[in-house]
Amino acid sequence: MVPEECTYTKEHEWVCNEGGVAVIGISEYAAVELGDIVYIELPESGSNVKQMDPIGTIEAVKTVAELFSPVSGEIIEVNEAIIEHPEIVNRDPFEEGWFIKIRMSDPGELDNLFSFEEYSEFLGEQED
Amino acid sequence: MALKTPLYDSHVERGGRIVEFAGFLMPVTFEGIVAEHETVRTKVGLFDVSHMGELSLTGPGAVDFADYAVTNSVASLDEGQICYTVCCNENGHVLDDLLVYKFSDERVLFVVNAVNAEKILGHLRSIAPAGVKVEDQTAGTGQIAIQGPAARDLLVSDPFFSRVAAGIKEMEYYRFFTFEHEGAEILLSRTGYTGELGYEIYLPAEMTKGVWDGLLDGGGEHGAAPIGLGARDTLRFEPGYCLYGHELDEETSPLEAGLSWVVKLKKDDFVGRDALAREKEEKPVRKLIGLEVTGKGIPRQGFAVHHDGETVGKVTSGTFSPTLKKALAMALVKRAVPKKAKEITIDIRGRAAAAVRTPLPFYKGSVND
Q: Domains in chain B, please, with CATH?
């Protein structure tokens, strides 16, 4: 995944469109903010979700965060490796640490999300 | 306006993530909670604990007054000895948990939680007899905790502390001594909040950064690293140490929180004694237990605990234990919950996660080595 080519949500998820399949993960910023991730819960593949549905839970040592689906569609794959080894997400949030793949029912929804530049600007505002 | 400890600039220089805690700007992490936790469990880590409150009690009758103000026995301490204790109100509920250092019959030091320092200062002054002076020395005092199996090796090899190396090697758990440096008194105690071998240093604020930097920058071979508040919490959690605002508060008695060993009902009168004697007689309503989540999720403070379909209490602290690699919780529950209780669940955001009782402490470290 190339960070510059992904789109982002204000919940700090990244989405990479691979021919109509959205690959979803959390941004480097989110991984750092959460700290050491120790437990991840994701839905079964095969289920259908709508944009902004909660689709998972990320527990760090001190905090918990909810994962929301950035797009609508069918979940076709979840990353079992991060369920076994959640620390992968801290180490490599953009590649090995992806969460879930969704076959999008409406790829137009991606237009509602931040571009890389917009997300960077958004992060700048968060810092202030 | 949040206060800065004498080490604030050092934390920023060393990449600490700063948060406000109990009115102080403190580092919550440096390298990351799990890595810092492991450093303390296997090597040695340094904590800035300058935010802790130091209240000095001096004058004729200082020890007798201290004995009246807290539940543990200060009178029976040797000079140079320390006790862990709680300070209760008349209801026998906990105003704070603290360390009491006995220098002599006329000089005692209370080390209290930052969040409670003003409350305890006011409380002590309101009950102190004429002749006992209660002074807040927090602002002028820096405090550093050195914790981990290599803590002793680090200290005795440090140029600042090598002059007292013999004393450090001999010092037993919960003992302290003082020495002079440039006319100022430096206090060194064998105490800590991690379950590991460790020491705490109290020194003038203006000397703190020099000593801190010396220990960290000269401590390479012993692996010394700065540790933030995040790991301080997971490190105290595993050995089952109470944290004020979690296991202890003004609605909880020390008998419920597993601290009956610091309540000396046979000593002379003390604040909260009647209530605690009655409670002991009638048996405490709640008890502090350990739980391991066998289902999914991580328990957190405030989550409800159920047994046989009934709500029996709540989680006081919960986390993923970096050492034991388990989701664990301390919980205050009704005394009737049996040791081998089955069907315990913790309500993790609306879902019942299965849990089993597991003995406290969860972990025993090098504290007595």
A: 3-52+139-237 (3.30.1360.120), 53-136 (3.30.70.1400), 285-369 (2.40.30.110)
